[in-house]
């Protein structure tokens, strides 16, 4: 489990000189500007885009599902803040060799750099929602991975997690089921998320605090049993992870659902790229 | 044979195509944004499409062992629809994205004033963002279209050696080559180029700055045309190095001008799946990745 400081140190160890200089400059810039300075709308010139709705970007985006996100001020004329451009372009600035075996850094350096940027800018829920809505797959994944590092009010970013869980992109699904989801997803959404992971081959190791949340969950047990029956009826193997979760549901709930361990260092699953990465994202998942 | 298809619309293709392409040696593609057959009626349709080219499609490609990048633009055909024109204002926020390796496809369709405006504006955007440009030549009135295209490029801030002029043929190759641009050829089952004529052009003009693509889309087209050109080149006496130059090194060099080309499937933009785990594909000419075994 990495703290933000440990994460930065680990990332810098793997960057070359140019990459370190870029990250240092970008983080300094982000810390100076903060989230509000980045509250720009679409590119400045889009004020002339009269054919689009008042905010076509957020009308159907997760941002609109968040109460705070919908209170965004109109776009200033200056365009995106520098740190937001850095967030978008991180992938081409922090490439490096893969980590050595045993290196605790997230496999993916752009993920880590983007997490650090969001933290340095003290991104709030509207900012996270905006960057997610306008992000590439890699940027959206980084926003999801960063959620445990951000000072968010309660469940403000749940719409982002739910959006990611609706996709069939296993990189997003894996990033969505981290410590933030463990604390804030409703029981129904969380059970659906676990089932989706089993469905799409996202390994159980990506699901934060699954032991705590699955413990004594009779409804989850029913869903898992039904799913196992369906697999068996089709002559298909039952995922090994299913049995592990099912066994846990049989345990009695002992401790409070908000166990202290959930708040300390929320970095357990900064990387969805586990050695057993998803294999069947494009199988016959519902579409 | 390692193959980089520098122009293919994978959004319109199936997973069977991805599997066949991988088996044929395709390890990298660039998907230019273009018209979808059914006209769009609002800018938001473009944004969802751009998001797909930067999200879902690279993920899909990576699952089949293929690195996917894209070029983004307001296409010439829809540049004529005033409802779509606001896309030009929104493009800058997309052109900073890591997966974008050029502005394109831009160019002419019917050679209208609206197309003039969109072409010039987007060449400027390419220059502003440090990106090369993929410029297609019109299907109708092609030679006049090529000349007008080259004139606009010459007047733009973008140097000719950062421009790939596509859909060339026997009637346009010479003037395009003389201009100093990169030369793109689309090989189709019925229209545009075919394998035999492509090899004849390569024999006459050489492999320098030549890129061959399938431009496969939702119409009658074949995503394996790149491989078929490579096979015919070999059968007609071209060496392996010539084939590699045309089908791999030239596209890598052209899109590499962006500084954003990342052919390592294990890295961020195209994250590895278990299928291809540990197979970093062909960044510098390494061994081909193992064939996908399961999904």
UniProtKB/TrEMBL annotation, chain B:
Residues 269-295 are annotated as: Disordered. One of its GO terms (molecular function) is hydrolase activity. It comes from Streptomyces niphimycinicus. The keyword Cell membrane does not apply. Transmembrane segments: none annotated. It holds the Pfam family TatD_DNase. Keywords: Hydrolase, Metal-binding. Belongs to the metallo-dependent hydrolases superfamily. InterPro entries: TatD-like, UCP005295. The lineage of its organism: Bacteria, Bacillati, Actinomycetota, Actinomycetes, Kitasatosporales. This is TatD family hydrolase.
